[in-house]
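Bumping my old thread because nobody answered last time. Still need a sequence for this structure:
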């Protein structure tokens, strides 16, 4: 069979400052660059992205993969009209040109907004159905943070979402989606489907599947699907920074009978509702976190990890706020490391000065107007190119542009020219820092860091410092959410 494969991933933050243009998809940090046609196969080979797993599953089953287009950009403000229409246009036109296809697999995020299309995935699926017709089987893999809308469920033959956060099952989810697509083709008729929105936001730190209660819910999810006879059962926890009426968590279920789909969806929804009172996470003010980390670090042992959750580049932050850096310096956290701060100008200044130089910088703060001004020593320089080694993106090539390790008053700072969430130890090893050997390590991340850093940590603290990925979405000026949606559990 001929199976079309395409991908278009972006996690959009309605209140972030910088939109995702075409350039953001061409150089997306630690993920493959925008590609089209046969070049897509080379770009995705050896990576952990869902489409790589889907391609391998299709080829292992003896089917022909027809590559269309694939692109991903780091989370930010919504995708520009030009970028969305360009990439969506490639996917639709190339799929139409490739017909007849036996099926189509899409590697999507589920929380993409465009300047002119708040439900980005729903709009892409609408365009595909309008061009390719209602009968072509389409399977979709989604991020765990997807805002799954009814339009998406209606347009796809099956949707399956990641089951881990940190997302260590991206490739496996793509393979599962492909297997479900092949099963749908063999079935010969559309599946019954059920969609159950959940009427409250779940804070991002509480969505972690390495901790209760999500750990327990996702652990039993596959068994529940089998028990109910569902082809797929997914819980998407939503991305609570998208200001449109489809934002929020949801359960989806697909089965050969409506009764089975409804039973699976209802039971999983009830499990989430029963845990509502437990869906919170402890948050530390920055100065208190630094004081606690210093006290624990003085006792020796593994590093204390501080998560700079509100400036998480993986949630729409620009990776350049300096509130936690200020707290580390003020708290005399000597030997601590913070990264990765996104500031191309400061990285260029460090490269111009050279290793060993001392330079005056106004570091970061482009996104919020609050840089850290001081005299920094350039300890080490790098080109920003490395291969990820952690569980989430092992094998992915990263290119952060000119990179520097700086020091100010005993605190080390990793500065790069492009933003990337700090979820891989290779980001620090690239500039000579061995993460397991430092007393305190501060990471611009909310949860993804846990896959690679929690195993080496004595303790993890989620810290409140400035940034747009606010731990409490109720503080954001939403205007377009659906009535009755609570902004916290």
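Sorry it took so long. Here it is:
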């Amino acid at each position: 069979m001929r199976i079309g494969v395409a991908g278009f991933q972006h996690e959009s933050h309605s209140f972030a400052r910088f939109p995702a243009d075409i350039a953001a998809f061409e150089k997306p940090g630690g993920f493959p660059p925008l590609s089209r046609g046969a070049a897509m196969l080379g770009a995705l080979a050896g990576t952990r992205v869902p489409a790589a797993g889907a391609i391998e599953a299709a080829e292992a089953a003896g089917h022909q993969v027809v590559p269309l287009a694939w692109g991903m950009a780091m989370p930010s403000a919504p995708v520009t009209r030009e970028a969305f229409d360009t990439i969506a246009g490639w996917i639709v036109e190339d799929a139409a040109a490739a017909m007849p296809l036996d099926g189509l697999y899409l590697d999507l995020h589920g929380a993409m907004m465009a300047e002119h299309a708040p439900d980005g995935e729903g709009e892409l699926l609408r365009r595909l159905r309008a061009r390719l017709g209602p009968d072509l089987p389409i399977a979709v893999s989604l991020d765990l943070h997807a805002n799954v809308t009814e339009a998406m469920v209606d347009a796809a033959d099956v949707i399956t979402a990641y089951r881990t956060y940190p997302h260590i099952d991206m490739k496996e989810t793509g393979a599962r989606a492909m297997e479900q697509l092949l099963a749908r083709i063999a079935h010969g008729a559309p599946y019954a489907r059920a969609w159950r929105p959940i009427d409250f936001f779940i804070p991002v730190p509480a969505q972690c599947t390495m901790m209760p209660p999500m750990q327990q819910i996702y652990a039993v999810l596959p068994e529940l699907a089998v028990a109910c006879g569902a082809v797929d059962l997914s819980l998407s926890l939503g991305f609570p920074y998208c200001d449109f009426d489809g934002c929020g968590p949801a359960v989806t279920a697909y089965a050969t009978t409506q009764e089975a789909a409804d039973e699976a969806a209802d039971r999983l929804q009830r499990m989430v509702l029963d845990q509502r009172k437990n869906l919170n996470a402890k948050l530390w003010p920055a100065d208190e976190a630094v004081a606690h980390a210093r006290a624990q670090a003085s006792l020796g042992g593994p590093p204390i990890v501080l998560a700079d959750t509100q400036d998480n580049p993986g949630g729409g932050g620009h990776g350049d706020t300096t509130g936690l850096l200020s707290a580390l310096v003020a708290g005399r956290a000597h030997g601590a490391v913070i990264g990765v701060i996104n500031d191309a100008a400061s990285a260029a200044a460090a490269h111009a000065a050279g290793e060993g130089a001392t330079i005056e910088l106004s570091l970061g703060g482009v996104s919020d107007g609050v840089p850290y001004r001081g005299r920094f020593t350039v300890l080490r320089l790098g080109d920003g190119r490395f291969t990820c080694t952690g569980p989430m993106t092992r094998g992915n090539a990263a290119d952060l542009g000119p990179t520097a390790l700086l020091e100010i008053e005993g605190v080390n700072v990793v500065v790069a020219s492009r933003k990337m969430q700090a979820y891989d130890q290779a980001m620090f090893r690239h500039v000579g820092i061995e993460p397991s050997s430092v007393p305190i390590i501060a990471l611009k991340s909310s949860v993804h860091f846990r896959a690679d850093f929690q195993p080496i940590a004595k303790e993890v603290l989620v810290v409140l410092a400035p940034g747009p990925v606010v731990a409490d979405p109720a503080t954001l000026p939403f205007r377009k959410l659906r009535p009755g949606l609570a902004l916290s559990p």
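The first helix runs from residue 22 to 26. Let me know if any region looks off to you.
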